[in-house]
Amino acid sequence: MSGSTTRRALLTGVGVLAAAGGALWYGRRSTAPDATLAAASAEPVELWDLRFPRPEGGELAMAELRGQPLLINFWATWCPPCIKELPEFDRFASSHAGQLRVVGLAIDSLAPVQEFLKKQPVGFAIGLAGFAGTDLARSLGNSTGALPFTVLLDAKGAVAQRKLGETQLSELEAWARRL
Fold it and tell me: What percent of the chain has pLDDT over 90?
């Protein structure tokens, strides 16, 4: 690499990091959706007790998904790899509708998610977890709280697979075969 190419790559990387940090700061300072994630007590929250507002109205009650395999994707509108993989999750959800459920939990606020879904609708359920959703992701094995994060739970609710980072359709297919 030439000196100018190296400088350009370095400045691009710094710019991307600054933009991600700014988006994270802005999202944290805006009001998070009223997801029932964390009680005032220090007791852990049970996944199946959680309820999340839906972008189209109503709520996503996790208890209704209990007893069947469940793929949960934690994502945000400000996360480029999250946006890139959402069509893969949509294809996977439609091709495995009888075998398992797919849920997207947006670590984001209502307006950006609604705007995004107008442009790129998905056929699986989306819940608004807000930034409190990172605590849920951590409880499912995401020690860094980074996005995207995907976890597959078996019918008993045990973690069968998990991945931090962009997930490919071929990986999701392989996970489903192992259930």
Answer: 72
